[in-house]
Structure formats: C-alpha cells, structure tokens
C-alpha cells in the first residue's frame, strides 16, 4: 500500500501540521472541512503546502516521524524548495 507525508499550514510561515495518510485527497478534505476536532481545526491549519508520495506506507510513516522531530527552520526550507509561493497544493489534487 502506498502513502503520503504532508504538511499543512495556516498561512505562509504560520502554524504547521505534519501528517501521514494513504489517501491524500480525502485526508486533506477532512482537514479543510474541519471534519474532526483537533489541532488543525483549532488553529485553522488547512492549506496543503508540501507532500511526498511513497510506494510503501511504512516508509511514509517512518519519514513522518522523522520530519516531526525536525527543527521548524528545516521544515520551512523544505516547503520553500517545493512550493515557494506557499500555494494550496490541494488544488492540484482535483479540489
């Protein structure tokens, strides 16, 4: 089973959330619609600003754990490298 690691942001340089899923489009929709109460709905973290796909969900889970331990600066640099405008990449997923 394949998977994704993703980062959501409230705005450029705003609050960040790192997650893992096997269905990126569905999971991002859940965050954007505040389907479940929690961190992302509390802080308005709904913009998909970075993601990476993996052939094996276990690799995605391992990478998510690693990225969550990173310094904020490293996460910002990774986002900027892929998405310098901090655009909502959910639009690329068909939303």
Structural description of this entry:
The structure is a single chain. The protein is an alpha+beta fold. The chain has a single domain, classed as GIY-YIG endonuclease (3-Layer(aba) Sandwich). It has 4 helices and 3 strands, in the order E-E-H-H-E-H-H. It has a 3-stranded antiparallel beta sheet with strand order 2-1-3, with helices on both faces.
pLDDT averaged residue by residue: 94
What is the N-to-C succession of helices and strands?
Answer: EEHHEHH
| CATH homologous superfamily assignment | GIY-YIG endonuclease
Number-wise, the strands total 3
What's the overall geometry? globular
CATH architecture: 3-Layer(aba) Sandwich
Estimate nothing, just give the exact number of structural domains. 1
Rg calculated over all Cα atoms = 12 Å
Ends: how far apart? 23 Å
Q: SS-based structural class?
A: alpha+beta
The low-confidence runs, each spanning 5 or more residues with pLDDT under 50, are: none
In spatial order, strands of the major sheet run 2-1-3
Beta-strand percent range: 15-25%
Helix content: 25-40%
Q: Report the biggest beta sheet as strand number plus sense, adding barrel if it closes.
A: 3 strands, antiparallel
Q: Tally the helices.
A: 4
Characteristics of this structure?
three-stranded antiparallel β-sheet; globular; 95 residues; alpha+beta; 4 helices; 22% strand
